[in-house]
Amino acid sequence: MKAGQSLWTREQLILAINLYSKIRFGQMHASNKDVQELAAIMGRTPSAVARKLGNFASFDPTLQARGIKGLENTSKLDKQIWREYMDNWDEQFIESEKLLAQKKHTSLESLNPLDLDEPKDMFGREATRKVLMRLDQTAFRRMVLSNFDDCCCITGINQPELLIASHILPWSKDAGNRLNPRNGLALNALHDKAFERGLVTITTDLKIKISPLLLKDKSIPGIQSNFEAYDGRDLIEPKKFFPDVEFLKVHNERFRS
Fold it and tell me: Using CB atoms within 10 A of its CB, is residue 84 exposed (0-12), middle (13-18) or buried (19+)?
């Protein structure tokens, strides 16, 4: 450690990995407004925060597979925080969001705004459900769309209004991976619905697979252009978090062949 530098605290690292999960690899630089904002909250320089994001990148297997090494000189605590986060994504992400809200002197709900007509005196299980819904519809969407460069990973459509952060494992079926970007695909509304209904799936080697139930009507121009044209193609690869193979296997079992 250079003279005048201070060790990163556990709290600071949790805030840094929270930001790492939300922004693209190409955005992890000192001039990024999110990096600058977090630096101000921490009392560190934007360059220091950007370097720490680069440190976390060195642990990321997706980036390693693309030949991107990230920054070296990581600490044992860096690696520990990374492992804790990746092994228990939902719980760790929620805790990091709570910490960020605290540092910003706001609430978790305000940090993840959602237009819900809800009573102000919610408590217990219902309050928890609403908070998870907020995180799912705002934070999860931000992470998943960022992971695919704000493009549909099947068609490449890049109009945000048409994109949905789709769960591979349904929201209602796996409470531990509702916020995990490895459980998410950026899909346009049509392919999101087809994916949800088992008419489209993604194989474990990231190939697009279209149900024969759709392809039997491939004489219809819309079926040709929207489905037949993509059958067997490679998925547009994510920038950081690859879909979890075990999640894909579960969805493959729901595929309507």
Answer: middle
Task: Identify the pLDDT of residue 128.
Answer: 55
- The span from the CA of 17 to the CA of 52, in Å, is 9
Compute the C-alpha angle 68/74/76, nearest 5°. Answer: 130
Find the helix or strand (DSSP H, E) in which 185 lies.
strand 184-188
pLDDT at 119: 38
Q: Which residue has the tokens 């000189």?
A: 73
- In this structure, the chain runs to a length of 257
Task: Copy the structure tokens of residue 40.
Answer: 């101000």
Whether the pLDDT of residue 114 is over 90: the answer is no
113 contact partners, CB below 8 Å, separation of at least 6: 134, 138
Instruction: Show me where the domains of the chain are located.
Output: 10-87, 133-253
Q: Which two tokens stand for residue 145?
A: 């769309």
Within 13 Å and on the Cβ side, how many CA atoms surround 16?
30
> Which has the closest alpha carbon to 170: 157, 183, 158?
183
Say which residues have a Cβ less than 8 Å from residue 26's Cβ, sequence separation at least 6: 239
Query: Residue 3: which region, alpha, beta or left (left: phi > 0; alpha: psi -120 to 50)?
Result: beta
Q: Which residues is 186 bridged to in the sheet?
A: 165
